[in-house]
Amino acid sequence: MLFKRIKFNRQELSGAFGDIGTDLPLLIAMILAAGLYAPGVLIVFGLMQIFTGILYKMPMPVQPLKAMATIVIAQQISGNILLGAGLAIGFIMLILSLSGALDKISKYIPKTVIRGLQLGLGISLCLLAFQKYINSDGMSGYLIAFLAFLLVVILIQNKKIPTSLILITIGFIYALLFNVRIDNILSSIGFNTPELTIPSYEDIAKGFVLLALPQIPLSLGNSIFATKQVSDDLFPNRKDISIKKIGITYSLMNLIIPFLGGVPSCHGSGGMVGHYTFGGRTGGSVIIYGVMFIILGTFFGSNIEVVITVFPLPILGVILIFEGLALMSLVKDQIDNKKNLIIVLLVGIISAGLPYGFVISMVIGITLYYLPFKLKLIDDF
Is residue 84 a contact partner of residue 208, using CB atoms and an 8 Å limit? Predict the structure, then answer.
């Protein structure tokens, strides 16, 4: 009965890799920047995927907290503070969820603003793919990315062929030819388990100020409200998915993860769209995805350099582009209303183009939506 609504087929296998372009580079960058224990990070990340796959029975993603990741990578903040921040935001989200505050806040954030945030996230993912991933290996990277892009265009609607799995396989062959030797992979095999950690009160306090506070607005907008909207868009019959439920699982994950040395995580609209775009329709896709991370962490996690090279960035960039394009396509239901379209475009551009853009754009978008008068700019549009 537990797996009655969960499938494990070719489409779920393909959907399993629909979010890897976002997750894997962020996880590796945070491991290196914060000095985290790599096997624990990968294993715990995989366990959380399995947890949400079983609980939701749909491709409910688990992703690293992006605002935290950005700050940690840029400022080289220690792993202890990062783990403390995970506990801090877990407690905050638990209070907001159980008190009903999340539901009350969601009533004042219009769908138009959520669509703008999704547009901004889609633009950000595509820019990241072009600026950091596809050009990482020079001309050979451009070539393999172009071929991979054409392959996805041809196969994306084919339910018999697991498109993303083919991309990952091509990436592995590419890695063997240009980046890594098979004997290096074999020599890195070992056996690892997560390490128990207990963040101190000082780490929790510093993590709250340095990392949790900047993360909260993005988590509310993308991890909670936008994820609920995408769930309604893609799975309209799933009436059991609520703002409160998403908030509670978000909080529970972050109340567990720090004690196992994992990276603070959230749900995310982009991740759900990524899994769905490549075929995921049940919890099977995220469960398969989670098993992959557990295998990587358990047997290869002690040599993180091998993990990096086995998944070439140009291939991850192509997956990221299609995740971003699918996210941006969701704004089509706002095109017929001029005011809504202006707000969507404004929120999307600001959120993608400015530091803390998701916070600024959400405030501006909500303000414009509730203005009691029409702007001349909108009338002239």
Answer: yes
